[in-house]
Amino acid sequence: MKISFHSTVLWTDSTIVLAWIQKDPSVLKPFVRNRVSAIQNLTEINAWKHVPSKENPADIISRGIDPEKIQDCNLWWFGPSFLQDHSVVSPCVCSDINDNELYQREFKKTPTDPVCLVVQGQEVLPIIRLARRPGLTGTVPVFRQNLGVPTGLLHVPVKIKFDYR
Q1: pLDDT 10s digits, 92-142
Q2: Quick check: is 47 in a domain?
Q3: Please, which pLDDT band fits residue 146 given cuts at 50, 70 and 90?
Q4: What residues have CB less than 8 Å from 78, skipping those under 6 apart?
Q5: If DSSP states are collapsed to H, E and C, what string results for 66-79?
Q6: Residue 38 placed within a domain
Q7: Buried b (16+ CB within 10 A) or exposed e, 140-157
Q8: Per-chain mean pLDDT for the chain
Q9: pLDDT of residue 138
Q10: What pTM was computed for the model?
Q11: Residue among 90, 80, 99, 89 nearest 19 (CA)
Q12: How many domains would you assign to the chain?
């Protein structure tokens, strides 16, 4: 007997994880980055859905349940009601997760020192970033996309990566 699957739905009760797997792994710290990379390589991001903790059958066991009570636990045996009813599951909105401390602490720290861009006619000179420590200076080449920028000095508060080689 051969079984084929039309689609796969993957469930998590962690809105933090849902937000992480939608990010570029390179901005995350190594432990989370490695797991997010694996998830992104092995699954479709759109396949991930949120199950509220109170409807997550796995939580019944992980939070502890008396063996005599599990035999009457419909959530354990049949899953959440929205799966039984074939209800449409609304996607988790992770936009408010950005302020969550647990979510934020897995991001790598990147310098946010001010930089400046010097434009001379149609030529764009490199961005210069002065590190807070003496003797460390770096340049990042940049290409101007807006040809309407007048000649002069522009202050651009952006994040840049700095290579200390």
Answers
A1: 555 555 555 655 665 655 554 445 555 555 555 554 444 443 443 444 444
A2: yes
A3: very low
A4: 84
A5: CHHHHCCCHHHHHC
A6: yes
A7: eeeeeeeeeeeeeeeeee
A8: 70
A9: 42
A10: 0.52
A11: 99
A12: 1
- Determine, yes or no, domain membership for 36: yes
Give the separation between CA 116 and CA 108, rounded to whole angstroms: 23
For 119, phi and psi rounded to 5 degrees?
-115, 125
CB-based contacts of 131, cutoff 8 Å, min separation 6: 111, 113, 137, 138, 162
Residues 108, 27: contact at Cβ < 8 Å? yes
Residue 142 lies in a domain: yes
The domain of 21 spans: 7-108+135-158
* Cα–Cα distance measured from residue 102 to residue 59, given in angstroms and rounded to the nearest whole number: 20
Distances in whole angstroms, Cα of residue 27 to Cα of each of 8, 22, 121, 152, 163: 27, 11, 35, 33, 16
| Token duo for residue 34 | 């490695």
Task: Report residue 33's pLDDT band, with 50, 70 and 90 as the boundaries.
Answer: very high
Distance CA 112, CA 74 (A): 52
113: Cα separation from own chain's centroid: 23
Least confident of 25-29, 87-91, 104-108: 87-91
Amino acid identity, position 150: P
What distance lies between CA 38 and its chain's CA centroid? Answer: 13
